[in-house]
Description:
Layout: H1 2-15, E1 33-42, E2 45-54, E3 60-66, H2 80-85, E4 92-96, H3 111-126, E5 131-141, H4 143-153, E6 160-163, H5 170-184, H6 188-207, H7 212-220, H8 238-241, H9 250-254, H10 259-264, E7 270-275, H11 283-292, E8 299-304, H12 331-345
Parallel strand pairs: 3-4, 3-5, 5-6, 6-7, 7-8
Antiparallel strand pairs: 1-2, 2-4
Amino acid sequence: MRIQRLFATLAISACFAMPAGAAPWSADPSWRVEQHEITVPADGTELSGTLHAPKGASNVPVVVALHGSSAGGQDDPLYAHLHELLPALGIAVFTFDRRGTGDANAERPHFSVLADDAIAAKRAVAVSDLVDADRVGFWGLSQGGWIAMKAAAGSTPAFVVIASTPLVSTPEQMIFVSRNAILLDGHGEAAADLSEATRRTIDDFIRGERTRAEAVAAIEAVREKPWYPLTFLGVDDPEAQIRDDYSDSSWAAKLDVDYEAILAQIDAPTLLLLGTMDTVVPVQHTLDRLAVMPNSGTRDVVVIPDADHVLRIVDEPSVGGDPEEAIPDSAVYFAVLGHWLGQTIH
């Protein structure tokens, strides 16, 4: 009997035996993420990208992530939540390096070029054996939302997610954020008004409606002000830095873009996400415009409580910050994004 009990004990122990070196609480996860490198041929260049997909999955839908203004690399912190969240929902994520990434001297491409690159990325992903070509769409935050709009209006994505993106032109958005930065820094309405007037003078010069001399004088009049860095003009020596002609610049191409008209051209299901604490985007203006735009029933709008421009929960409004800390953390945003994508593409 003693021998029988010994063998029974050994048999039970064997059932719970673990690999050598494994922690007693260790277990295999239900899913893992695989990374597949994909090169995007895009108008004379090649862009490097990575598909983050559930291991062993096939025929998966894909979110193609488009770049915020300060997040041009495929591994920037802004995109980490997509890499972590969406594969667990059976959705792959493709992030790629923006044109010119790594070249400090490269001029930022026009939005139309970046939108063409987004379409090229969608096309490159769709031919992968892992991917359901009919369920590939775009996600873009901030500047990436504008690019997503243009790319979606010029192609046939399965869906579009536009986060923290206003229905105003880039110059109008920059005037808005400059005013807020100056006011939040305590410089008052007069300084905010002067900043706006300066930016409008520069924009009119780029349009060809003001002279170079007027543009130089406008900046000279304010560049010694303590709030001048908050105009975000980036001009320290206007006489030396301001060119004679900006007609071929990327900024000129952004001056009077009608994003309402572009949004109206999108046929795909579209989710627009905005935050109540976003000082970078005129949220109420955007909501007011959306309210009067025709909607075929495929456009959803969600305002995330207490979320800032990168959909991060904050206690107080602020402008700027370290791009490395531009990491969304709103549970409401995560839930809305996951639910909407699940309802839309599964």
